[in-house]
Specification:
The structure holds two protein chains of two kinds. By secondary structure, chain A is mainly alpha-helical. Chain A is 72% helix and 1% strand. The chains are: A mainly alpha, B alpha+beta.
Chain lengths: 392, 252
């Protein structure tokens, strides 16, 4: 709290607006939940729509979704002034609050959909592992099976049927999960940068894009680390889906942009100025050019020109990384961008990110590494690949 | 031994039977049930009138508010503040400033007779009847009281800052000491005792006046009838209850 805050102000801001409310931690929140929703939707493709080509990534996608979903509430928790009161959101929720209702959607998605689906899918493996392993591992798998060790044909058929049902319920749930995150921002009428009915849909499609890119990269990385050969039809298919989802996402965002420019309401000049100054690098350069147009072009190029396997792999890695960067920038531009201008439309401020503070860059980096650690443990405990299962 | 047990059961039983009426009696005594509360929420509906032309930008209200309500002194925490508008003819935007929220008044900045109009606009929580800030609170820690004041329960606030984002007027801030939200509550501790707010009390020109819209004798009714009144950002339909007289269209 130093006078320095005031120096960041250009023009006029309401005095209470000088201090930025939501930091990089709140940027992580829609980013991580987006990865979850996207990864799950990709996994559902195989299960519900029977896209056999993406089957090798099915379990990895589910485990990635779980790893990121477990981390998603942590930045929020860290950001609260009184984290010890956060349980009140569940105990005494205010039903008109989008944030309070999100807590229930999160819990439903975690326990009602994701954990249940993973458990059903892995039950047979866990029972077999509980039989073959010894010592603490045996105990672990026995606990994980919850004592349900019937793996008769009939029982597994029920598992599969149930799993399929949960996936069908899970798709709208995943849509809800991230669409709702968009609503948390899109429903704030005080903030014209956020307040738009397309926000939930834009969030949803960008979530699908980021989730697909994540699974694509994770699959290639895990194959590389384990020395398994990459299933090319699988990654080719995923990359194609990535391009389709990206095209829809980009069209929606451009629709929103064109609409704003054409309508040019009272907030437009202020927002337009911001997009050309404070947000120019993160919005125009990072998000739109390098985070969207370049990866879409790369993926489209592959559809038209036949390239070698090695070249395709290289392009997929690069396009995947650029995509994740672009989607992260999109979250940044929404959350941070929405706070850089005054609601008086007469002034601007800048966001100075701290490093080793409670809401600084360091905890943000640690929170982004954490899901990969969780995923590493999950992959160890619940091997996602067929080859490994055969070896057990 | 057995008689001891018998005694114990009997005594405990008697006590148990007596507990309910005893508790009810104690509660009646403690809450003073017999006494009527001096302040009846249902009989009031609070708001404020701000007469823009009367404000001289002295900053008395800002200082009084900070003192009365223990608002942090830093220049970005205000329950009320004053803005200076300078609107030149044909200018696209008004020139607005609020040095330290008007806490120390306004240093001379514009030359007299520069062809522009200049005026001061006191700002505070608009005590909206359909407040977007209370709508988003995840736990209901901030709420519209039946008497029209928008209040905050600091012992319940999570400090999530969603309400700060949702207020279109920039009236909320996070108190760095309590890490909970704070805003103008119309000096609730004063108005429920029949006093006016600290800002109204200290205003030398009567530019701000606390009003009770449910009190038929309150001069507010005549005032609202006799003047062209506007609220801030009416397009957002927040049901603001701070009524401005003489508000220029350039005010945001």
């Amino acid at each position: 709290m130093e006078e320095g805050l005031l120096h960041a102000v250009q023009g006029f801001m309401y005095p209470n607006e000088v201090e930025l409310q939501w930091s990089i931690l709140i940027v992580l929140y829609p980013f991580t939940t987006g990865l979850v929703a996207g990864a799950f939707i990709l996994a559902s493709l195989e299960r519900v729509f029977n896209v056999q080509a993406v089957k090798p990534t099915y379990r990895l996608a589910l485990l990635s979704a779980l790893a990121f979903l477990l981390v998603a509430p942590l930045p929020l928790q860290l950001h609260l002034g009184h984290p010890e009161r956060s349980l009140e959101m569940y105990l005494t929720p205010h039903t008109s609050s989008a944030m309070a209702m999100f807590g229930f959607i999160y819990l439903w998605y975690l326990m009602g959909v994701l954990v249940l689906e993973i458990w059903l899918d892995y039950r047979k493996d866990m029972v077999l592992l509980a039989r073959s392993e010894t010592g603490w591992k045996k105990t672990l798998y026995r606990v994980l099976t919850l004592g349900v060790d019937n793996i008769s044909e009939e029982s597994l058929r029920i598992d599969d049927k149930l799993g399929r049902f949960i996936t069908i319920v899970g798709i709208p749930s995943a849509f809800l999960l991230h669409g709702y995150v968009g609503f948390i921002f899109g429903s704030v009428k005080a903030n014209p940068w956020w307040s738009t009915p397309v926000m939930p849909i834009v969030f949803l499609f960008s979530a699908i894009v980021s989730g697909i890119a994540l699974v694509l990269l994770m699959y290639m990385l895990v194959c590389f680390l384990k020395g398994i050969s990459i299933d090319m039809p699988c990654v080719d298919t995923i990359a194609r889906y990535l391009m389709y989802a990206f095209l829809i996402d980009f069209s929606l965002e451009m629709l929103d942009l064109i609409h704003r420019i054409y309508e040019a309401d009272e907030s437009f000049k202020s927002l337009d100025f911001m997009a050309h100054t404070q947000l120019y690098t993160s919005q125009i350069i990072v998000q739109i050019i390098f985070g969207t147009i370049v990866p879409i072009s790369m993926l489209a190029f592959i559809q038209v020109v036949k390239l070698s396997e090695a070249a395709r792999k290289g392009i997929y890695v690069l396009a995947g990384l650029l995509t994740l960067m672009g989607i992260f920038a999109m979250r940044w531009n929404v959350v941070i961008g929405g706070q850089l201008f005054s609601k008086s439309f007469l002034g601007y401020t800048t966001y100075k990110m701290a490093f080793a503070t409670k809401e600084g860059l360091l905890p943000a980096i640690l929170l982004m590494i954490l899901p990969f650690g969780i995923l590493w443990v999950l992959v160890k405990v619940l091997p996602p690949f067929e080859e490994e299962k055969a070896a057990v | 031994m057995s008689s001891d047990r018998r005694d114990f059961v009997l005594t405990a039983g008697k006590l148990l039977v007596l507990t309910a009426p005893a508790a009810a009696y104690l509660e009646a005594v403690e809450t003073g049930k017999a006494e009527e509360p001096a302040y009846k929420m249902a009989e009031h509906y609070w708001g404020m009138i701000v007469d823009v032309d009367k404000c001289i930008g002295c900053g008395n209200c800002v200082r009084a508010c900070k003192t009365e309500n223990d608002v942090p002194v830093e220049p970005y925490f205000f329950r009320t503040w004053v803005e200076r508008y300078h609107v030149a003819e044909g200018a696209e935007h008004p020139d607005v400033d609020s040095p330290d929220g008007g806490y120390s008044g306004f240093p001379e900045k514009y030359a007299a007779g520069d062809g522009a109009k200049s005026f001061f606009v006191p700002k505070l929580c608009n005590q909206c009847a359909h407040s977007p800030c209370t709508q988003v609170c995840p736990v209901g820690a901030t709420f519209e009281s039946p008497d029209g004041a928008v209040l905050v329960d600091k012992s319940y606030c999570l400090g999530c800052r969603y309400c700060v984002q949702a207020c279109p007027y920039g009236c909320r801030f996070i108190d760095p000491r309590t890490k909970t939200v704070d805003k103008c509550n119309l000096c609730y501790h004063r108005i429920t005792k029949g006093l006016t707010t600290a800002c109204c009390e200290s205003c030398p020109t009567g530019a701000r006046q606390l009003v009770d819209l449910k009190d038929p004798k309150d001069p507010v009714h005549d005032f609202l009838r006799d003047h062209k009144i506007q609220v801030l950002k009416p397009q957002l339909a927040t049901g603001a209850k701070v009524y401005y007289n003489g508000l220029d269209g350039s005010v945001r």
